[in-house]
Design brief:
Blueprint: H1 13-30, H2 34-40, E1 46-51, H3 58-62, E2 69-74, H4 84-96, E3 101-107, H5 111-118, H6 123-128, H7 130-144, H8 148-168, H9 171-178, E4 184-191, E5 196-199
Parallel strand pairs: 1-2, 1-3, 3-4
Antiparallel strand pairs: 4-5
Helix pairs in contact: 4-9, 5-7, 7-8
């Protein structure tokens, strides 16, 4: 017996294309030079490293327009020293675009962090979030002392701290700091439930501050 596959709710592809045409026309009406100006240069002040979660769109939640933030996203906002994708984004943002701020932004109720905590991930995903599983294992005594409802949120925050420390070890970041260039790193987290960003107070402005992250 064949099983009828279920499709997800949401607009068809043609509607997405029409939405794009409507958006582009609206932008042109409001600012006729927007796209010509955008096509000539890309000089964002910020690099955003966040989670791939579809509910956390960097431009929209920060109120920035295209061209104002360079974005890299992956499952659970992991920054791996051996990840050429992430490291190439960091290098390009720092050296070519000369961004002044790099924001590592996690979010509460992150599925990747939850999978690391519960040990439910398999395959490539399990390998990808292994560093978060390590955080959970190392911090489990402290996290276990929290009410069950607060443990995931605490681990999401700890993951931002860990990834920020990993970012600070990136070659491009260290080179910029050694040259005395203005580059700051920041740890933020986003709440899907109310749409608000929270600064975790983990900003770094040079290598000397990294040790304070623990």
């Amino acid at each position: 017996m064949s099983q009828t596959s279920k499709t997800k709710d949401g607009p068809d592809l043609e509607i997405l294309l029409q939405n794009n045409r409507n958006w582009a026309e609206q932008v042109r009406q409001e600012d006729p030079e927007f796209f010509p100006r955008l096509a000539t240069q890309q000089k964002p002040k910020y690099l955003w490293i966040g989670c791939s979660d579809s509910r956390v769109p960097a431009n929209q939640i920060t109120g920035l327009v295209p061209g104002e933030v360079f974005v890299h996203r992956n499952v659970a906002n992991v920054i791996g020293s051996d990840d050429p994708n992430c490291q190439s984004v960091i290098e390009y943002a720092v050296n070519a675009l000369e961004v002044e701020h790099i924001i590592v932004c996690g979010h509460y109720k992150c599925g990747g962090v939850q999978a690391a905590m519960q040990g439910t991930a398999t395959g490539i995903v399990a390998d990808w979030i292994a560093s978060i599983s390590d955080i959970w294992n190392a911090q489990q005594p402290n996290l276990a002392a929290l009410p069950a409802a607060e443990r995931l949120a605490a681990l999401c925050e700890l993951n931002v701290q860990h990834q920020l420390k990993s970012l600070a070890q990136s070659p491009a970041v260290n080179e910029a700091w050694s040259q005395g260039r203005a580059l700051s790193l920041h740890g933020w987290i986003y709440s899907i439930e109310d749409g608000l960003l929270k600064d975790l107070g983990l900003s770094l402005h040079d290598q000397a501050g990294v040790s304070a992250l623990g």
